[in-house]
Amino acid sequence: MKKVVPVILRHKNQGIDILAFHHPLAGTQLVKGTVEQAEQYEQAAIRELFEESGLIARPNPKFLGNLILRFNQQDWYFYLCEVKGELAETWQHHCQDGGGLDFRFFWYCLDQQPDDHWHETFKEALSFLRNSLTSS
């Protein structure tokens, strides 16, 4: 099963922040979702970003690479998305997935080591992003 991870970054004096959120049932995460049948990956990234965060991405997100997770062998495709305007430090979005849940969004510094609130899959994803963004 192919997954897309729409990535929103902001550059601060102390480094690069990535958009993350607290899921009320599953801990701290990045936005991620399944590519639907016959859906282009870029479109899946834009759709998932909107469904989970309410944010509208500009067309043509930049492909950052893919990662086959050690944890469960899922294939994740990362896309750098851009949105219009400045985003708040934190906000909440009511996502319809899972019967409707409130996700609390915040900025996470990529230089930090993720704590135990992050699932192993997202720790692996953060490491992949840290390496791919700093090597380019």
Automatic annotation (TrEMBL):
Q: Which domain of life is it from?
A: Bacteria
Q: Which UniProt keywords apply?
A: Hydrolase
Q: Is Hydrolase there in the keyword field?
A: yes
| PROSITE patterns, alphabetized | NUDIX (PS51462), NUDIX_BOX (PS00893)
Q: Which cofactor does it need?
A: Mg(2+)
Q: Which SUPFAM superfamilies match?
A: Nudix (SSF55811)
**GO molecular function annotations of the record:** hydrolase activity
CDD domains, from UniProt?
Answer: NUDIX_Hydrolase
InterPro entries documented for this protein: NUDIX_hydrolase-like_dom_sf (IPR015797), NUDIX_hydrolase_CS (IPR020084), NUDIX_hydrolase_dom (IPR000086)
Residues in Nudix hydrolase domain copies: 1-130
Q: Specify the protein name.
A: NUDIX domain-containing protein
